[in-house]
Design brief:
The complex is a heterodimer of chains A (896) and B (87). By secondary structure, chain A is mainly alpha-helical. Chain A is built from 48 helices and 7 strands. The two termini of chain A are 55 Å apart. The chains are: A mainly alpha (896), B alpha+beta (87).
């Protein structure tokens, strides 16, 4: 049961079906109509709008199967009552990629699994543009699309369609999207019911191809009665096949005043053997079925064979996949069968829904299971399904699904139900509505006693886990820590308990626990929980969760050296990229840690690019705890480059973010210390003192504060005072672990000695700084304190760290900027219009999210364009891309 | 909006509806005249109206006419709501 949600058999059903599956079914090849389609798709958009049974789908499928090498048809059928824009666009993307190169397919799906609707539309547009053959995107049953977002996104797609691409929309009624722009430029073709109607000649052809002999008068009467309605004629053909007296059938049909669909449907059903009738009626309430599910509902075996035979007889049964495993009924047939089922066997219906729900739940199709549970009237069961799977959906990046399924709950479904409240809480949390989430959690918690005893434990753990996530998102670290031990204990118990807690829940709890511990500087606990969480996530196939755990493992602990912490940070980024999760906000801490250590080790350019990426992936509503890290590293980078004003702003932003937390933050002390030191360097000693005054450092970290005090003294021309302040630092610094503060302490002392004219003491301090720095290559303090002059005071023969001493001045002067790849310097690949639009913003100081909002696209889209711009220009960063673009005169407005 | 939409409706459909199709409209009375079926019934609001239309569409029935029948004997609860904006 644990990995239910990873199975999505419904996802790839609606692929275009190969020619042999449906052309050989006795469907008439309606050449005139196929030619009409060919003419229609010379326009950018074709709208087919006609009532059910007009033959829209048959035409589209026949036309798609006949397609030439000159185009590729991507066929999407909208699922019944589709309210989930994200799912709809993923189906579209799958159709465009299908048949995808098998090696890429998995990575591609993983990469898009979590994208939102508007990002998916951009992806659709760019992939359509990349296809070699022109793509015709066919969207059938568009009337089933009930998401206003998806329809708006569809409009956007039509407005931005690459010139070679075509879209065909098929719907029972005119689609509710604006098409007047396309009408104005005559780029729209419309096919309506009148165009689809059978002619009398076609009616005769259909009869003769189906082996039905009918007099001319009979054929004419049939045609007149059916009025060219495709479904009516097909039903009539089924009824006529093997009919003992076709002429009598036509006479009766022509004579009746019954509505023809109902009349013919009833005829068809009556002509089936009773076991087939029974199977058809009882399976009518699922949207699609395979043999196993049909047997379960029909209460007998052999359904698959019946379905295959019905499909072969063209009896309104459609197979959904080329292997003919999944079937559905023609919409008209399904409607009539459902009514008939309700008329004949109404009392069986709840039980049939219940069986379907169980089957879908067992096969990981939770959305269908929920739908049938609700239809059976079992909303508490449905609530339990949603509560149990909401984590999985969130982790698969399909959190919108929770919202969609919750909409379907009846009003009688009491909000006091703990499972339902829990599902609502997960939904609100996911939508960033923290207060609403808290309120729902209260409800869940206060009604937990109404749950069956066996379930209370699991609910309690789920509630605690959501609380933890909520508190983490709100930055209430101290509150979290209070609950952590409780949850930790219950998780440990759980593994010995009879009640197995879902592995997902457990991994999510471990993640939140570990994140909070990381930010609370309990790195040993964090290491334990996050490693376990990552391993568990990997075991249950949850890449997002694995990446999230690993993203917070980039810090050293007593058991993890600095070198391996760095390596873990880089690994987290690599793993995320492999899963296509390289742009998720959760990766920000890993990128921040990578930048942090790169800057400590003097690799400022590498640090800068990791940091820039960290800010790019961080969502606007980044957790305050992660924001502290990113601001601090930004400040360090500027400080290392002597840009003290920019450093000041970043450290101040870090201190500001920290003040929104209610607990101790791992980097609170360095942020405050460096903020004060930067203020002092900028000639604001009073402000610096004020910064320090309101702050009490954690035990063992006083060194950051003392260093800052020393900088204030030095800035005020009081080197002796600085030495006084620094005297106690070495004793107050923990003897183990990297000497983060100590290097700076020695350097500041050395500078003070130098100012006092004591070159020997200065050389000794410089040597001590090098000794402390060497094991972990802690170069950053040399840059921040501008220690070049001090190192000059240390004669090279007097140091045991000559290599480092020689290297540091080079690093402080700055590494050579990442060189432009000269090989790409010749003629760059042409930029697309949208890339050019983004390019124009690169010389500005707008951030990527700001560019995105200027262009009304998602940040992700901008990221994609910028990556592509870099690669086409052969550059690696924004400034060199701008330089290169200037050289190529791509920035002039003339080209737009 | 809903107050002006609620009311008695007559829906004319081509052909005589049999028991199966009629079971889709349990709240409406049916009458067959000249090869047409007229469904008559009180529809509470817009979504009820659209629900009936969707059902007609789903069954492939041919809609000939949808008529809102002005009611002389208004239902008591809607009396107060006959607001001035009703044309």
């Amino acid at each position: 049961m644990t990995s239910l949600t990873t199975m999505q058999p419904g996802e790839h059903l609606e692929q275009p079906i190969s020619r042999d599956v449906f052309v050989a079914r006795g469907l008439l090849d309606r050449d005139d109509l196929l030619q009409l389609m060919d003419r229609a798709v010379t326009k950018r958009v074709t709208v087919i709008s006609a009532p059910p049974g007009s033959g829209k789908t048959s035409l589209l499928r026949a036309w798609a199967a006949r397609s030439t090498n000159l185009r590729r048809v991507a066929f999407v059928s909208v699922d019944r009552d589709q309210q989930d824009a994200q799912r709809f666009w993923r189906d579209v993307l799958d159709a465009i990629r299908s048949p995808a190169p098998s090696t890429d397919a998995e990575a591609q799906s993983a990469a898009t699994a979590a994208l939102e609707g508007d990002q998916l539309v951009e992806r659709v547009l760019s992939e359509v543009a990349e296809q070699v053959e022109p793509v015709v995107l066919v969207i059938d049953d568009l009337h089933e699309l009930r998401s206003a977002d998806a329809l708006a996104q569809l409009e956007h797609l039509l407005a931005n369609l690459p010139s070679s691409a075509r879209v065909v929309l098929s719907s029972r009624r005119d689609p509710p999207i604006r098409l007047h722009q396309l009408r104005l430029i005559a780029e729209i073709a419309e096919i309506r019911a009148g165009d689809l109607r059978f002619t009398e000649r076609e009616t005769r052809e259909l009869l003769s191809e189906s082996g039905i002999t009918l007099s001319d008068a009979g054929a004419a009467a049939l045609y007149q009665r059916a009025e060219g309605w495709a479904a009516g004629l097909r039903l009539a053909v089924i009824a006529l096949s093997g009919h003992p007296d076709p002429e009598r059938f036509v006479a009766e049909f022509s004579g009746t005043d019954r509505a023809i669909g109902e009349y013919l449907m009833a005829e068809m059903l009556e002509r089936q053997p009773s076991e087939v009738q029974s199977m058809l009626l009882r399976t009518s309430l699922v949207d699609r079925m395979n043999g196993e599910l049909a047997d379960l509902l029909a209460g007998r075996s052999g359904s698959e064979q019946m379905l295959l035979e019905l499909e072969e007889a063209n009896a309104f049964v459609v197979s959904l996949d080329a292997r003919r495993i999944w079937f559905r009924y023609h919409h008209l047939l399904a409607e009539f069968l459902r009514l008939e089922l309700r008329r004949r066997f109404a009392d069986e219906i709840p039980d049939l829904h219940r069986r379907a729900a169980q089957w879908f739940a067992d096969h990981g199709e939770v959305v269908e299971a929920v739908r049938h549970s609700l239809a059976a009237g079992d909303w508490p069961d449905a609530a339990r399904l949603v509560a149990d799977h909401s984590f999985g959906w969130v982790l698969d990046g399909q959190a919108r699904t929770i919202d969609a399924v919750l909409q379907a709950f009846p009003e009688v479904a009491s909000a006091d139900h703990p499972d339902l409240a829990l599902a609502h809480a997960a939904n609100e949390l996911n939508r960033g509505r923290l207060e609403e989430a808290a309120a729902q959690l209260e409800v869940a918690e206060s009604h937990i006693q109404s749950a069956p005893p066996g379930r209370r434990r699991r609910l309690a753990v789920a509630i605690a886990s959501l609380r933890l996530a909520l508190a983490r998102r709100s930055g209430r670290l101290s509150e979290v820590i209070e609950q952590v031990n409780l949850l930790d204990a219950s998780i440990s118990d759980e593994s010995n308990d009879q009640i197995a807690m879902g592995s997902e829940l457990r991994a999510v709890a471990l993640l939140n626990l570990g994140i909070v511990e990381t930010w609370s500087r309990r790195f040993d606990d964090a290491e334990r929980h996050l490693s376990e969480g990552a391993a568990l996530a990997r075991a249950i196939g949850r890449p997002y969760l694995e990446v999230a755990c690993r993203a917070h493992l980039g810090f050293p602990s007593t058991t993890v050296s600095l070198a391996s912490a760095c390596e873990r940070g880089r690994q987290a980024v690599a793993v995320a990229e492999r899963y296509g999760l390289g742009e998720r906000p959760i990766l920000a801490p890993a990128l921040g840690a990578v930048a942090f250590w790169a800057i400590w080790m003097g690799e400022f350019n590498a640090g800068e690019s990791a940091l820039r990426r960290a800010w790019e992936v961080a969502e606007p509503q980044i957790d305050p705890a992660a924001a502290v890290l990113l601001h601090m590293v930004t400040g360090q980078l500027h400080a290392a480059r002597g840009q003290h004003q920019a450093a000041l702003e970043a450290f101040a932003a870090g201190a500001q973010a920290r003040s929104r937390l209610t607990g101790v933050h791992a980097f609170a002390t360095p942020v405050v210390g460096w903020l004060a030191a930067t203020q002092a360097r900028l000639g604001m000693p009073d402000e610096a003192r004020e910064t320090l005054a309101g702050f009490s450092a954690e035990p063992g970290r006083i060194g950051f504060i003392d260093n800052a005090r020393a900088v204030i003294c030095l800035a005020e021309g009081d080197p002796a005072g600085a030495l006084d302040v620094l005297r106690d630092v070495p004793d107050a610094t923990p003897p183990t672990g990297p000497a983060f503060t100590l290097v700076e302490t020695h350097l500041l002392a050395g500078i003070a000695h130098l100012q006092l004219g004591d070159r020997n003491a200065a050389a000794t301090a410089a040597e001590a700084a090098l000794a402390a720095a060497e094991p972990d290559r802690l170069i950053f303090p040399f840059a921040m304190t501008d220690a070049a002059e001090l190192l000059g005071a240390l004669p090279s023969h007097q140091t045991a760290h000559g290599a480092l001493a020689a290297e540091i001045p080079d690093l402080l002067r700055g590494e050579p900027a990442p060189s432009t790849d000269r090989e790409h310097f010749s003629q760059p690949e042409e930029l697309s219009p949208s890339e050019l639009r983004v390019l124009r913003y690169l010389p500005t100081n707008l951030t990527r999210p700001e560019i995105a909002s200027e262009l009304y696209v998602s940040t992700n889209t901008v990221n994609t364009h910028i990556r592509s711009i870099y690669s086409k220009l052969g550059t690696r960063d924004r400034s060199s891309a701008v330089r290169r673009a200037r050289e190529l005169r791509l920035l002039s407005a003339g080209r737009s | 909006m809903t107050t002006t939409t609620a009311g008695l409706y007559a829906i004319r459909i081509k052909g005589r509806l049999g028991p199966t199709a009629l079971s889709a409209f349990p709240t409406m009375a049916s009458e067959v005249k000249d090869g047409e079926t007229v469904l008559t019934g009180w529809l509470e609001d817009r979504s009820a109206v659209f629900g009936v239309l969707a059902q007609i569409e789903a069954l492939g029935l041919e809609l000939l006419e949808l008529r809102h029948i002005p009611s002389r004997r208004q239902s008591p609860e809607s009396d107060d709501d006959r607001s001035p904006d009703r044309v």
